[in-house]
Design goal:
The protein is an alpha+beta fold and 238 residues long. It is built from eight helices and seven strands. A hairpin with a 3-residue loop joins strand 4 and strand 5.
């Protein structure tokens, strides 16, 4: 039996400051003129070691990010006056934290019978994980073919990233990230005006109820309550 292994991997000396890793073993093997077969086995061992260490670093980074992420406040209005957090709100909340811990993400897209988006979350040490969501083109709202595809892509990007990181989305953040201080967007303000007009509700009375001078002065945190109030409005019959 060859004693090459014994030359490459000597017994560890108690208190030795040098940790015996696969990379150390490979270096010693090269220096001692080990056979190709031995080098191949050590290279495979090193690769498995590196992959394991990268996975550990990835998991630690994700755990650190999740410990710091706060709920993302819904900042846009979609179909049926439903509130949601758009991609920019989600990215603004998570991108700085991901970068801080050596993480990043990217998307891959595919289209056949449906539109597929794969969110890949990766760490600077090399480990990555991914999740895929699929759906049909969003043809609502008289979109053309390209707009329908773009709408679905944006939707799937949002939700695949939310799923990958386990992000919580909140109606209100008690003012910490814009719920109490941020005012309605032009889109939301116009949506309320359109609803008031459709219901035949006087805008001046609505403003008095909302305790603001203009619809644009309404805080985003109160938007859902305003929508409910308008929906429940009943005009007086002559």
């Amino acid at each position: 039996m060859s004693n090459v292994a014994e030359k490459i991997v000597p017994a560890e000396v108690p208190g030795s400051p040098t940790a015996l890793t696969p990379m150390t073993m490979l270096d010693r093997a090269v220096a001692s003129g080990a056979s190709i077969e031995t080098l191949e086995r050590l290279i495979a061992l090193r690769d498995r070691w590196d992959a394991s260490e990268a996975r550990k670093a990835f998991n630690e980074a994700v755990a650190a990010v999740k410990a710091d992420i706060k709920p993302v406040v819904k900042n846009r209005t979609g179909h049926n006056s439903k509130r949601y957090a758009d991609f920019s709100a989600i990215a603004s909340a998570v991108d700085p934290l991901l970068a801080k811990h050596g993480l990043g993400y990217r998307f891959l897209t595919e289209q056949d019978q449906s539109i597929k988006v794969t969110c890949i979350l990766f760490h600077r040490n090399g480990h990555s994980e991914q999740t895929t969501l699929a759906g049909p083109a969003d043809t609502s709202g008289n979109k053309n073919a390209i707009q329908a595809i773009g709408s679905t892509l944006t939707y799937l990007q949002r939700y695949s990233l939310v799923q990958m990181l386990g992000i919580a989305v909140s109606d209100d953040d008690d003012g910490a990230a814009g719920g109490a201080s941020e005012k309605l967007s032009a889109e939301d303000a116009q949506n309320l005006r359109d609803m008031l007009k459709a219901k035949g509700a006087p805008e001046d009375k609505f403003l008095k109820w909302a305790k603001v001078e203009r619809i644009e002065d309404i805080p985003t945190a109160q938007y859902d309550a305003c929508v409910t109030a308008v929906q429940n409005f009943k005009s007086k019959q002559p």
